[in-house]
Amino acid sequence: xxxxxxxxxxxxxxxxxxxxxxxxxxxxxxxxxxxxxxxxxxxxxxxxxxxxxxxxxxxxxxxxxxxxxxxxxxxxxxxxxxxxxxxxxxxxxxxxxxxxxxxxxxxxxx
Length: 110
Hints:
Layout: H1 3-36, H2 42-51, H3 54-67, H4 70-79, H5 84-93, H6 100-103
Helix pairs in contact: 1-2, 1-3, 1-5
């Protein structure tokens, strides 16, 4: 594996780690909120956190990063291509594993 392959695979690793961290944060927030609400409102809290599912929260974070221009700026700075990071984030965020080999040839799917 060359340095270029590692540089191309790094966004997938970073996005995956971010998804895991957000998932843990959402679970901790839910358990914290459930400790403080009355038993009557527990179903409401469960419904709220179902709506704020992992993909919804992560999608919102990436939407804000994309719309603010952060992803384009980082991608241009690191890879010289404004659309590369956005394609990586979309591939990981939407859990389309078939997309990864087309975006990043260094990753092989088995």
